[in-house]
Amino acid sequence: MSSIADNLHSVRDRVARAAERAGRRADDVTLIAVSKTVSPEGIEDALAAGQFLFGESKVQEARAKIGVVSGRARWHFIGHLQSNKARDAVALFETIHSVDSVKLATELNRCADNAGKTQPILLEVNVSGEASKFGLKPEDLDAALAQINALPRLEVQGLMTIPPAGKDARPFFRRLRELRDALGLRELSMGMTHDFEIAIEEGATMVRVGTAIFGERNYGTEN
Question: Which end of the chain, N or C, is more open, meaning fewer C-beta atoms within 10 Å of its C-beta?
Answer without folding.
Answer: N
